[in-house]
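Progress report, Aim 2. The chain analyzed during this reporting quarter is listed below.
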Amino acid sequence: MTDGAPASYEAAVERLEEIIDRLDSGQAGLRETLDLCREGRELVDYCAGELDAVGEGLKELNLDDLASRLDSSASAGP
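Predicted structure tokens for the chain:
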């Protein structure tokens, strides 16, 4: 990606789709194919990082929710 990181996960996925379409067309030359593959790899890495970050955020939310429920149960008591 010569322009830096994409603006969002969705933008990265859209660009990946464009790259796949271009490669599937069979019209890309050797050098362009190499450049597109490199860009695609960077985009996949970016997307994987974004998904990992969201996954970690969801785990934290679930742990916080569980802790809140446990605190509520303990304070309600028998």
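The two ends are 60 Å apart (CA to CA). The chain has a mean pLDDT of 88. These observations will guide the mutagenesis work planned for the next reporting period.
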